[in-house]
Specification:
globular, 6 helices, about 65% helix
């Protein structure tokens, strides 16, 4: 009777090592061409914003939004800081657009697609930027963090001041469009 085949310990160690390295390899592949992926995300997001409310169904009195985008963010030159700033902007934008007070005239399906799209991109950027979870503030200088938070606080105050009216939300939707344009400028700085 033949003796049972001996196990090859090297194969088990190699397989274990391979299993440990696969998640890192998968993340590295997902994060390749991050700038190109972000550019596509920006374009798709702008299209979804347009689909949410292609035309105003009501006449809005001229409302003067007082939330200029923080231009200090456009001085960022470091690719990781640009990526982290985009992540923080998207996180705040997601929170704002997730409000239960969004107007009824917005296309619900396009709105939900945009929220899903933004949430997916937030998760993607978190995976590609080491140490950049939702609570991590280590990659963006404090002045930039504060300017992002202040910018979105002005947007929230504008909505409250105007009682979350459809016209106020349309102003915010237009401002979200501006956000994605500014994110596009930051995208140009991102590493590929």
């Amino acid at each position: 009777m033949a003796a049972p085949a001996a196990r090859h310990p090297c194969l088990w160690h190699g397989a274990t090592l391979l299993l440990l390295l696969l998640p890192a390899l998968g993340t590295a592949l997902r994060c390749a061409n991050l700038r190109t992926q972000q550019t596509t995300f920006n374009w798709d997001s702008l299209q979804l914003l347009l689909a949410m409310a292609p035309r105003l169904t009501h006449t809005c009195a001229q409302q003067d939004p007082t939330f200029p985008f923080p231009n200090t963010l456009l001085t960022i030159q470091d690719p990781q800081q640009a990526t982290a700033a985009i992540l923080h902007i998207l996180d705040h934008l997601f929170t704002t657009l997730s409000s239960e007070n969004t107007p009824a005239h917005w296309d619900a399906q396009a709105h939900q697609q945009l929220l899903n799209h933004v949430e997916h991109q937030i998760q993607h950027l978190q995976q590609c930027l080491p140490g950049a979870g939702r609570d991590s503030k280590t990659r963006v200088p404090l002045t930039h963090q504060l300017s992002i938070a202040t910018y979105f606080r002005h947007i929230q105050n504008f909505l409250r001041t105007h009682n979350h009216s459809p016209c106020a939300w349309d102003s915010v939707r237009i401002e979200a469009h501006t956000c994605f344009q500014r994110i596009h400028n930051l995208t140009r700085i991102m590493a590929d």
